[in-house]
Every structure is written in structure tokens, then in C-alpha cells.
């Protein structure tokens, strides 16, 4: 039987586990945390998700009572929160991450509890002395038990060297990603470097990306990037282009202030900025458009996407650029298996769509791109 808090049927978009759940003895590799969406899809937590029946990626997180030793200013797992809430009960990218025994998770997958909906598994590392070794243990067990579902690694470059990347590849990691998050040296230093008493360094993260390009090869590595932490659109897209030129892909997140983080009082990324960056990133990653083909104004905002207007309009109408960007599934490299439902926004104001957009959704996105001050979605996806 899985080790989880007792669940209740609650008519909200996400079931949130008992906030008083305490997990002092639960540590990897025996235990893992998983996103609420993954727990719902796996049947470990009762609940439902707005306009989507599941997530197609089993997002796992290594866990330790001591917590993450980094202190990133936007993260719900940051070290500075250690006195305010038990580590394994903290929210992370807006949702709770319930804890389960890893063997139980694998057994449920083998017995079809996900009904074949998972197309990928991802192990997310944290800054902890045991994270590297335990990630390898978790990966090896997964590859042996569930070989038909490919595995990704969301790495922690601060604790890794080149041999760690080689080892994970040899065990069976298909894709290796780096959570760069901040896209300029200044933003990186201010949000997750020495300025906030955190161990991460800009050069260390780029070195890991260079290793990943060499070890995993084209289309098998990427970076997580957060839009809206003080960078310009031009700066964000220059990094997207750099990673694409290396052979990787860019996985975007809209900045949304995490409750309890050092940046909890910041505003979310402006909607027009986010939509332009989403569209331009898609063009860079999948349509061969280069950032050098685009035009920007004095504030670094995109004014020309470098694509024929008719082609651009058809792409916007498809809605594909505005779906969640992440590691792919079985059939379509442009559509992410890691759709992370509502990881960067609420269901009433969707930033990264975890499903194909309707015509009404596209109309809403167009109005956001135009800078209109519009209301939020209702439950039928109307503005």
C-alpha cells in the first residue's frame, strides 16, 4: 500500500494533501515525491484537473528531511523556508508534491494504474549530498522495471561532474535537462547565486549544458527557462537561440510568484511578454527561425517574428506554440509529454496550456499578445 496522506474528494482543480502531513523518515531512494497531477493520474490522490484528464509525464522529485541546500529566491523548496514548513510538505511550482514509496509507484505503473497515459518519467534532482547517487539508483530501477516509458533527468549541475552525466546516459536516461531558469548572469546571481546565499553559479550551469550537448547529442538535452524575472524578451530569446544552436530544446515557464518564496511579492510575467516569448521560442526550436531574423524595440520586445505573416497567423491559429514546452512523448516532438498542468498559472488564467487550444483559447491568447487588459477564463475556456 502506498504511503500517502488519507485523501478526500474535493471539488477543486487540484486535491491538496493534508497540510499537516509530516514526513521526517521519508527519504530517497526508498521514497519519492511526485507532482499532484502525476499522483492524480496514477490514482494515488483523488481529484480532477480542469479540461484535462491527466498529465503524460510522471514527474518525480528526490526527497530528504534535510531538504534542498540551495536558496533560489523563486523556489518553494528553498532553504530559507526550513523553519516555516516541513520540507516534504512544501509546495513547488504552485502545487503540492505528495510522497510515496518508489516501489509502490513502479508497481502501479506495471499494473496499468495510469491506463497507459504516461509517455515519460522525469527525475528531478535537488541540491543535496545524496541526490546524485540516489538519482542513479532510481533511474536504474526504473529502466529495468518499466523499459517502455523513457526517462528524463532534470539535473542539479552544482553537485555534478562530467562522469555523472555519462553514468546517467549509460544507465538509460534518454534526455538530460538543466534548470538554468535565469537567462542572464545578473538575474542568475540575484535569484539563485551568491547574492541570496545559494551555491549555484552561472558558469557551472552552462558547463553542464555543454557536457550534455556532447554526451547526449542533438535533440536529447535541453534547458528550463523562466520568463519574467527581470530579463528582456530579447535576452530570453538569445539564450533560446544559443541552446538551439547547441542542439537542445528550450522548456519555458512563466514566472508565477511562489507562496513563501523570497519573490512571493513579485508580479507574474506580463501576459503580452509571455505570449510573444512562447511564440518566438517555438519558431526557434521547431521552425528554423533565428533570433537574428527577428526585430526588437528599445525595450527588447519582439516587434517582428521573422516569419511571413500568413505563416505566422496560421501557426498562431494552431495554438501549438502556447502549449506547455517540455520533453516529448511517443509521437509528436513538438508537443510535450511533460505538460505540467497548471504548474505556472491557475486554471482560470492559463499560461502554459496542458492541452490543445480551442478557437476560444486562441482568441484569448491573441488578445493577450495585443496587450489587452482582459478577464480570465471561465470553466468552459471562454474569456
Give a topology summary.
Blueprint: E1 31-34, H1 36-42, E2 57-61, E3 91-92, E4 95-96, E5 99-101, H2 102-110, E6 120-124, H3 131-145, E7 151-155, H4 162-171, E8 175-181, H5 185-192, H6 202-216, E9 221-227, H7 233-246, E10 249-254, H8 271-286, E11 295-296, E12 302-304, H9 309-318, H10 359-369
Parallel strand pairs: 2-6, 6-7, 7-8, 8-9, 9-10
Antiparallel strand pairs: 1-2, 1-5, 3-4, 11-12
Helix pairs in contact: 3-4, 4-6, 7-8, 8-10
Note down, in words, how this protein is organized.
The protein is α/β, with parallel strands linked by helices. It is built from 10 helices and 12 strands. It has an 8-stranded mixed sheet with strand order 5-1-2-6-7-8-9-10. The chain has a two-stranded antiparallel ribbon with strand order 3-4. A hairpin with a 2-residue loop joins strand 3 (91-92) and strand 4. The longest helix has 16 residues, at 271-286. The chain is globular and about 55 Å long. The model is unreliable at 1-22 and 84-94 (pLDDT under 50).
Feature tags:
383 residues, alpha/beta, TIM Barrel, eight-stranded mixed sheet, two-stranded antiparallel ribbon, 10 helices, 13% strand, disordered N terminus
Shape: globular
Q: If classified by CATH, what would the architecture be?
A: Alpha-Beta Barrel
Segments where pLDDT lies below 50 for 5+ residues? 1-22, 84-94
Mean pLDDT reading: 88
Give the number of domains: 1
Helix and strand pattern:
EHEEEEHEHEHEHHEHEHEEHH
Determine and state the CATH class. Answer: Alpha Beta
Total strands? 12
Write out the CATH superfamily name.
Aldolase class I
What is the first-to-last residue Cα distance? 43 Å
So how many helices?
A: 10
